[in-house]
Amino acid sequence: MKKSLILCGVALSALLISACSSGPQYIDPSNSKAYASMGLDYHDIEKAASDSVRSLLSSAQVREISRGSKPKVLMISGVINDTMQTIDTDQLSRKITRDMRNSGKFVLTLAQGAKTEKGINMARKARDNDEFDQRTTIEKGSLKSAELSLSGKIVQKNTKVGSKQRTDYFFLLTLTNLKDGTVIWDDEVNIIKLGSNSSVSW
């Protein structure tokens, strides 16, 4: 009887350990490529953003317009998701504009663009409201208008290759001069993946 209880206890302990070990686990982003999928992941967004910023900052036209001590005001006009997946395109555009700001040649405005900061208009509604000390409200004419606009598109194309599926992703990005509408810079970053039919991201 005692031996049976011990065996039952050992079996129960093994079961609990097995259940615990099959739970969620943290993955170091630097080592997470081993868990790659056919869909767009962290590494793909990082690569697309890094390659794009490197191309942008090395462009002769961008270097020309960014000369001087005054940074250019930039807005995000939007990145279109033309893939078969749900993608937060803001992750890509904000990564790019963050690196652009870190260069010291650009500043980002959220007063204009595809995604504006709601707090800007909320703060200005306090103007002429008797409930607020008018000496603390923001005066008219203080917003900076954008000089440049960043826009883009992510495209996905699936192709059957023998018994496998190939998925091509195209990151198309453009920097536009809002004063005259001319394109200052544009670039394309390609990411290609090959996997089984069952792993394709539709």
UniProtKB/TrEMBL annotation:
**From which residue to which does the signal peptide run?**
1-19
InterPro entries the record matches:
LpoB (IPR014094)
Q: Which UniProt keywords apply?
A: Signal
Q: Does the keyword Signal apply?
A: yes
**By its UniProt entry, which Pfam families does this protein fall under?**
LpoB
Alphabetical list of NCBIfam families matching this protein? lp (TIGR02722)
The name on file for this protein is: Penicillin-binding protein activator LpoB
- Organism annotation: Helicobacter japonicus
